Please model this.
Amino acid sequence: MAGKFFSKPTADQQDRVPPGQHLAKGFPVLTYGSTPQIAIDDWEFKIWGLATATTLSWDDVMAMPQTEFTADFHCVTTWSKLDVTWTGVRVTDFLREVDLDPAAVHVMQHCYGGYTTNIALDDLMRDENFFAHTLVGEPLPADHGGPLRLVVPHLYAWKSAKWINGLEFLDQPALGFWERNGYHHRGDPWAMQRYSDRP
Model:
C-alpha cells in the first residue's frame, strides 16, 4: 500500500526531502474537522493586534502584485510533495499594506472554521512565503484551503494555514490549535520539530 501512494526520494532528491519524510504521489488532504465553504463575495481578511486594524476584501488582495511560486511542501505526517506550483501574493508584498507596530514579533493566524496557528514574525516575513489562491493553474479547492491559504515552505505544512482570514500581531509568542495540543511551537522539518519541546 505504501508503494502505491508514497515513494522514497531518489538520490538526487534527498537533499530536498527532510528526515523521516516520504514523497507523496498525489497531493493528500488532511483536515481536522469540517471543511469551510466560503463564497468570494463574503470573504474578508482582518488585520489587528499590534497593527493598524483593517479589513481587506477579495478584490483588495487580487489588486496586490501576483506571483507564481514553485515550492516543496512537507507535512508533519511524514509525507512531502516536491515542486508544487501555486499563484498568489508574496507575504512581503501583502505586508506592505499593513502598518505594523515595531513591538510586533509574533503572529497568530486565524482561519474560517476557527483554526489558529502561530508563527514568529521573522518566519512569516521571508521572501519565499506567500498567500496562495491558485493551485496548478486552478482556483485553490476548499479541501486544500481555498479560497486563500498561507504557504510557508520552510516549516511543516500545519503552519501553512488553510482558509486563512486574519493575522493578529503580538508582542510575544502564543500557541495555536495544534501547538496547544502537543505539536512543536515552530515546526522545522529539517530539525524534525514535530512535537512539543516543552515539558
In short: The mean pLDDT is 93. The first strand starts at residue 6 and ends at 7. The helical segments are 2-5, 58-62, 91-94, 121-124, 177-180.
